[in-house]
Amino acid sequence: ETGVTQTPRHLVMGMTNKKSLKCEQHLGHNAMYWYKQSAKKPLELMFVYSLEERVENNSVPSRFSPECPNSSHLFLHLHTLQPEDSALYLCASSRLGTRDDYGYTFGSGTRLTVV
Amino acid sequence: AQKITQTQPGMFVQEKEAVTLDCTYDTSDQSYGLFWYKQPSSGEMIFLIYQGSYDEQNATEGRYSLNFQKARKSANLVISASQLGDSAMYFCAMRENQRAAGNKLTFGGGTRVLVKP
Description:
Chain A is 0% helix and 56% strand. Chain A contains no helices and eleven strands. In chain A, the strands form two sheets. In chain A, strands 2, 4, 5, 6, 9, 10 and 11 form a seven-stranded mixed sheet that branches. Chain A has a four-stranded antiparallel sheet with strand order 1-3-8-7, with no helix packed on it. Chain B is 0% helix and 50% strand. In chain B, the strands form three sheets. In chain B, strands 2, 5, 6, 10, 11 and 12 form a six-stranded mixed sheet that branches. A four-stranded antiparallel sheet of chain B has the order 3-9-8-7, with no helix packed on it. By secondary structure, chain B is mainly β. The A-B interface holds A 2, 31, 33, 41-43, 45, 48, 50, 55-56, 88, 90, 92, 94, 96-99, 101-109, 111 and B 4, 31, 33, 35, 37, 42-47, 50, 52, 54, 91, 93, 95, 98-99, 101-110.
């Protein structure tokens, strides 16, 4: 149990489907992140939420829609995806602002396959 | 230009031996943090060790130590007494401007380590 829980662990969806990825943390962290990890590519930061406000959106296509209803939950809504969107999607959380912040706590990821 | 560079895509290490994973970084910030994460085949990213840019001593956590050379902008990870369970991908990451909103991390491309019995 990592402290950050992602569901589902695996997801196969068609290009016309709509699905959502869920991330939950109860570590008292106040920032949450979505990363995309494709084969043979560095991790790509997709979205950053700081104190429940989206502070970064790294040119992610609109078919990915994040939602952060509170500091413990983060969603990634998916619709009309493409096969190249198949990847491991990692959620992370962290505390903000101090040098004693020991980086992120990651979830186990959702392995997404778009068919 | 890449901010975090890991030049070793993969390496083998004999069980019980030490291994050094290279990481160089590029930043103009004076205040930043450097991290190493381990990713086994299960996919989860596991935090290993942290080094702050103002820390004068190299960080150590059990069998992990970070060889921090600030002038060279390098932050190599040393794993001592390798174990079979150390086989995984290892990522170096940097957080710039630590007091900015979001505290985002930038990751290197990773190094795959395979420990041989």
